[in-house]
Known about the structure:
With 235 residues, this protein is an alpha/beta fold.
Amino acid sequence: MSLTDSPTVLLIGASRGLGHAMAAEFLVKGWRVVGTVRAASGRTLLHDLADAHPDQVDIETLDITQSGQIRALRQRLSGRAFDILFVNAGTTNPDPTQTIGEVSTEDFVDLMITNALSPMRVVESMADLVAPAGLIGIMSSGQGSIADNESGQRELYRGSKAALNQFMRSFAARQAQTPRAMVLMAPGWVRTELGGPEGRLSIEESVPGVVNVLLDKLGRPGLEYLDYRGRTVRW
Ligand SMILES: NC(=O)c1ccc[n+]([C@@H]2O[C@H](COP(=O)([O-])OP(=O)(O)OC[C@H]3O[C@@H](n4cnc5c(N)ncnc54)[C@H](OP(=O)(O)O)[C@@H]3O)[C@@H](O)[C@H]2O)c1
């Protein structure tokens, strides 16, 4: 389901990895993409996509941890309307094998800011640019599930995504009457820079599913925690 003749997604963190692949997938489906990269990243894969599809892709800059940059982007996008806002940007701590007791305070703070606080700041700031019956989504992870955590490992990363999930539930609870669809997405374990070479899925095995699940969810109000196949993930 699309809402307008020229459906548009605002995709935060589209320079490489899953975000870049999502941008390419939305283009295949005829969508317009406003994708963000960090200014310091220089030329990215999103720039190649924009060169190949100049009428369909606009590039904006945003580091999600910089509140001033969020405000500036919101200002630049004033008057625009989006069918989907999706925050993909995220990272992990330098040594994901560390237990929570081993993690430095600095790494803890950095990851919580990037993975939990900053995506919510983007959502809170940009939400009113999303059509009333549009969709707001964030890239979570299956590792954000508390119920499914029976193996430990990547403890800080898990905690940051679990916190993100909780914050998004609060956001959704504040607007229980909205027709908007909301999604916390678990893309599977994918071979990207973050996922590493051991990941179970290629980008091509994950991302088309991720995008289809978002499109299927359009028009279905309320928040769901879904994986790339559309299966509900336990909180
Ligand atoms: N790969 C997996 O197995 C997996 C599984 C579950 C969830 N995820 C989630 O999927 C998302 C994308 O991961 P990926 O695997 O594609 O990783 P990736 O290849 O390392 O890409 C990370 C993306 O996030 C951007 N980013 C990181 N910090 C940012 C910041 N402060 N401001 C703006 N952009 C920032 C990066 O931009 P730069 O190019 O500027 O660094 C890049 O576009 C993340 O939220 C991750 O937690 C991944």
